[in-house]
Design brief:
Layout: H1 7-18, E1 29-35, E2 51-60, E3 63-69, H2 74-110
Antiparallel strand pairs: 1-2, 2-3
């Protein structure tokens, strides 16, 4: 039977092991815009039943770009961008735990 370990190490290990699941992540922000296509006989002509347009906003060569996303890829792209948010949160937690451990090690050496 395994002895209870450091809870911070367990959290860090779980986060690091989970990073592989995020390999398909995408940068940027996902958004949906509603717009009219300007065709007079279209359902959107009344201004109520507008068309959805999906886009991501990303930096390319240091410049912001808005890229149109086909509707059939919207859910997949939205999920991959959410993966990036989870990655950032996991990385922040891992760094916080590592800093906590470093400070404790430094304190132990000085005692």
């Amino acid at each position: 039977m395994r002895s209870p370990g450091d809870p911070d190490l367990e959290v860090r290990g779980r986060l690091v092991r989970g990073l592989g699941a995020l390999r398909e992540m995408l940068p940027g922000s996902f958004f949906e815009r509603k717009r009219s296509c300007a065709r007079p006989n279209c359902r959107c002509a009344d201004g109520k039943n507008l068309h959805s347009q999906f886009q991501i906003s990303v930096l390319i060569d240091g410049k912001p770009k808005a890229l149109n996303i086909p509707a059939e890829l919207a859910d997949t792209v939205r999920e991959k961008i959410e993966m990036r948010r989870r990655f950032d949160a996991a990385a922040a937690t891992i760094c916080r735990l590592n800093l906590k451990r470093l400070l404790k090690e430094k304190e132990d050496r000085q005692a």
